[in-house]
Structure formats: C-alpha cells, structure tokens
Amino acid sequence: MDVRQLEYFLAIVDRGGFNRAASALYVSQPSLSQAVRALERDLGSELFRRIGRRAVLTEAEGP
Prior knowledge:
- This protein is α+β, with helices and mostly antiparallel strands.
- It has a single domain, classed as Arc Repressor Mutant, subunit A, CATH 1.10.10.
- Helices cover about 55% and strands about 15% of the residues.
- The protein has a two-stranded antiparallel ribbon with strand order 1-2.
- Helix 1 packs across helix 2, helix 1 crosses helix 3 and helix 2 crosses helix 3.
- The longest helix has 15 residues.
- The protein is globular and about 25 Å long.
- The model has no long low-confidence stretch (mean pLDDT about 90).
C-alpha cells in the first residue's frame, strides 16, 4: 500500500463514489479504479461494493 492508494481510498469513502472522488483528486476514474483494484489485490480483500454509481464499504478483514 502506498500513500496515493490510501488517499484514493479515503476520497472514495468521503465522497461515496469513484466518479466524485476522481473529480476531487483531478485524476481519471479509470486510473482511480485501477489503483483501488491494485490495493484490493495487495490486501487480498474487496474494499468496496459497487452499487450503481455508489461505492459502499465492505466488511473486509485482514489476514
């Protein structure tokens, strides 16, 4: 995990979705999604449920 991934994660949580977070961070939505997928892969757990345009936190647990 790097600082950028953590910043992206928090922006998605604060704004409730990938599109709003991407706009606030001045990055493209696909770049943001790719970074979050990499974070989820690193952690071995899905962090968000994508429900329409919203992103809802999962009850992910660490190893």
